[in-house]
Amino acid sequence: MKEAMPVLTAGAGLHETLALLTSQLRPDANHKEDMVFLKDVFSERSLGYLMKIHEKLRQYERQSPTPVLHSASSLAEDVAEELQSGPMSTEEKELLHLLTSPHLKAVLSVHDTVAQKNFDPVLPPLPDDLEDELEEESVKIVRLVKNKEPLGATIRRDEATGAVIVARIMRGGAADRSGLVHVGDELREVNGVSVIHKRPDEISQLLSQSQGSITLKIIPAIKEEDRLKESKVYMRALFDYIPLEDKATPCQEAGLPFKRGDILQVVTQDDPTWWQAKRVGDSNLRAGLVPSKQFQERRLAYRMKMGTLPNPKSPKKPASGLRRSFRLSRKDRQGSSGEGSDPGDPDFLTYEEVTRYQQRPNERPRLVVLIGSLGARINELKQRVIAENPHRYAVAVPHTTRPKKPHEKDGVEYHFVTKQQFDADALNNKFIEHGEYKENQYGTSIEAIRSVQAKNKMCIVDVQPEALKRLRTAEFKPYVIFVKPRWALPPEDPDSDEDLQEMRQSAIQIDQQYGHLVDRVLIKEDSASACAELRGILERLERESFWVPLCWVRT
After folding, report:
1. 361 with 355: CB under 8 angstroms?
2. Which of 3, 10, 284, 506 could form a disulfide with 373 if both were Cys (CB 3.0 to 4.6 A apart)?
3. Residue 434: which of 467, 394, 479, 471 has the closest Cα?
4. CATH architecture group of domain 233-305
């Protein structure tokens, strides 16, 4: 006989309803996992507590409580004064101690604020002589509440008239949120102090020292700028920036510091020299100043001309002791030219426009590229991860001109080809990298990578950093991992042996030349932990979104 469903009373609480619902969940063959999941969720003790709190709050709302009085603070002060007017018993002394304690006074103050429903900040009264000043229609009095945050505006002196002009409004700052101050407004007074004959640095100090509220006398610009919608332009920074070390910035305090690899949301490019931007992930609502791409490139070009910056187009010396694909000798190592979208192609590294990208079910998996400093042993790391899950991950089978050994199969360990065929493929730019070892040629081809991806497997390759240029395409959308052994990290011990110093120097040189192309740095403590970390990265690549160059996904 089917069990009857219990009936809820009209006064049953939400937590009682939840408990009853939980008791009625019965797993069946078709939805067993879903039922078990729901039962686990509904049985959580914390959820029951939340339901009880919700009921209590609803009861409190239905009672519509009203405060007995709106001035509990003054009443407490009156009682305390009355108690001190004569001799006190032990209980009266204890009551006086309670009424004068800072915590209780703060609670009573909050009570009064809520009871009076007075939640706006208290502003000082306007000056008595303000009516005369407002007779001229062009004058505007602006009062802002800024607390300890910067005002969020920069000023400049008009060379022709000598007037103090609002040069820019920082998006998200106090001035921007008010909607009352605009670019081009003329500033006359700050808190009643005339700024007409003051230097810009004196005015900035006056603005920064004002706490709580600040009153500005402004002559509005003839044409007020329309407030622009926040831009959705995102840039990956390819260099470090410290505003306090930048003498060119119009306001160092308004600058936004960032590190290479940070993602910046550029909220306005109105000024061709100084953009306003926020760091993605920052809780600060106010934008900061960063050098624009054009301005930063001009500065780097000037530094190169003056000899304080190496020419980015000059050939770079290979890092001594780099891990060599196919164990190539240094004198035999060759690069292969080809097409690619490398932010290192432009003259200078400044910014790269990016967007969020997540692999869709019908798309081929992203290419995973490992580069490593001397001692990283990334081939061993790659092979170990692939061996653990050969159905999901695979390596691009390389080509070679050496003879096939008896136990080897063509297309498994290597693609065995003639020297003539290898040379023809190299001439046609079919290899991402190739070289010679013991008079035999070795190389990894583009088609070998495509062959792995065509099987819906994630292809993992370990290459020389120089090969990144060929691989950074919309077709492969590579995720680049730089593997560093723990002992290759600074600080460098001057007494360490030559091999250890060479490892450190190798890591430093790769970071300097190719660090802007790296998506993740993996510090290799040992093979087991490095393998686990790499496996976690590969799993996230299949289900999470990542920042990639905009040109890779633009249709």
Report:
1. no
2. 506
3. 467
4. Roll (2.30)
Going across the sheet that includes 431-437, the strands are: 333-334, 431-437, 440-445, 399-400, 415-416
Residues in the chain: 555
Using CA atoms, how far apart are residues 414 and 429, in angstroms rounded to an integer?
19
Q: Which fold has domain 137-219?
A: Pdz3 Domain (2.30.42)
Q: For residues 441 and 323, what is the distance between their CA atoms, to the nearest angstrom?
A: 17
pTM > 0.85: yes or no: no
382 DSSP β-pair partners: none
Range with the poorest average pLDDT among 58-72, 363-377, 531-545: 58-72
Count of CB atoms within 10 A of residue 41's CB?
Answer: 10
User: Is residue 248 scored above 50 in pLDDT?
Assistant: yes
CATH 2.30.30.40 in the chain, residues?
A: 233-305
Domain with CATH 2.30.42.10 in the chain: 137-219
Sort 538 into a burial class: Cβ within 10 Å, 0-12 / 13-18 / 19+: buried
How far is CA 194 from each of CA 96, 171, 198, 413, 432, rounded to the nearest angstrom?
49, 26, 8, 81, 67
- pLDDT over threshold 50, residue 327: no
Residue 222 makes CB contacts below 8 A (sequence gap 6+) with 184
Dist. CA 517–CA 510, nearest whole Å: 10
What whole-number percentage of the chain has pLDDT above 90?
35
* Torsion sign across C-alpha atoms 120, 124, 128, 132: negative
Nearest-Å Rg of the Cα atoms of the chain is 34
212/450: higher pLDDT: 450
For the segment(s) 325-338+360-545, the CATH number from 3.40.630.30, 2.30.30.280, 2.60.40.350, 3.40.50.300 is 3.40.50.300
Provide the token pair at 34: 């879903």
Domain with CATH 3.40.50.300 in the chain: 325-338+360-545
Let me know if 449 is exposed, middle or buried by CB neighbors in 10 A (0-12, 13-18, 19+).
buried
